[in-house]
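User: quick one
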Amino acid sequence: MTPTDALNREHQQYRASADQCVAAAAWLASRDPLRPRYHLTPPAQWMNDPNGPVFFDGEYHLFYQHNPYGSVWGNMSWGHAVSTDLVRWKHLPIALVPNPEGYDRAGVYSGCCVDHEGIPHILYTAVDHQAAQQQTQALAYSHDRLITWTKAPQPVIPNAPDGPVPDFRDPFCWREGDTWNMALCHASTATKSVVRYTSKDLRQWEYRGVIYDQFSNVPECPNLFPLGDKWLLTVSPYGDVIYALGDYRDGQFLPQGPWQALDLGGSAAFYAPNTLFDLSGQKMMWGWVRGGGSPQSPWNGCFSLPRVLDLANDKTLTIHPHAALTSLRGAKREYGNLQLDAGVRVPLPELPGPGTELTGTFKVGEMSRCGLEIAGAGPEGKPLTITYDAAKGRLSCGTAGGTFRLPVGERLELRVFLDRSVLEIYANSRAALTARFHPKNPARPELFAWSDGESLAHLTAWALADI
Ligand code: FRU
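Assistant: Done. Structure below.
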């Protein structure tokens, strides 16, 4: 047996025991009333970044950073789920785990999955604390519809370009003609950059220089892609996930506007997103929504709903939930035209649920504020308030929020997804805000509409099916 065969035989054994550990915790995880039901969560245990979204042979595959052995970060592996409609997911066996004696002994970190000559290939960051360059880029491929993965004998990018750096990770690959391009985070105290490599075969990689280097912190999980007639670069520099629209020429990204937050909920709720063009050519994005139920519950983390990114006519970013999500809609309840007067909270009784989508149109005064309130869902059992503040041009949920400004006369169009303890808010297809909340009764949150001026609201709620 060659050393590579031994590595891969061992890998299969470690994978099998990781799966058993997750399966053993799954029943308990499924009992947690705070666990989301239509956001994708692993069967149990910890997850962080979405990894390697790919469409292959009629199915969408999503992988994720996963600790099969606990509900805290550690033992980084790749969990795996598959879907035909982007909404309903089936769990598959864990794809990759570290080999305790191998070049990824300290973790199989984030990366991407691409179809190269009809064969799915994963590029991931292999971590080995015993090596001089601790983070390297590694390759695995599958011949059985992405179920079992064969690791290459050695990392395919074993060294950083100018000597070892602590942060050298999260490959994101795309093809131009017959050439694979890779955007990669490369950071040390001296540099915080996204760099580029190219390859014809995913095995031999050549360093091509810096794509962009004006970051103030480690630009984790870069994604770079065309959107309309522009390019978008997004990174997760420990804080807010940020993006800029611009031009990409001769291997360099040139922003043409400010760096902005992709999600107004902040990195505590939404982080390290990954993207994929769906079958119709729309750019989809999933992010990691942090946090679990109670400290005892054996699950932590879920995916955001799939979001579609596009360019508006004025060349700014649009962002809205993927249309396929409407297939989860069941019972509907209309709350009609509500007159919201200052100081009056209008209850929205008998919300269909337990998973709910609420759509609302608000006619807002130029200087007023309006929104929704969830009883008992804030800290210390206080109400949690979703606010659009027209005077400040701000959308917020509790203490999280950011700039969102409607031109005078445009109505506020909200879509709010309530899923036990996960909340996503989309406003006018231009802003997204993800949050965690802890309702008293997660299956039946109690909602109110409100305004501090005079406002008209039309609200509709749907029960959303479990996935
Ligand atoms: C982002 C991140 C990545 C890394 C992974 C490890 O959340 O830190 O940079 O590859 O998580 O789990």
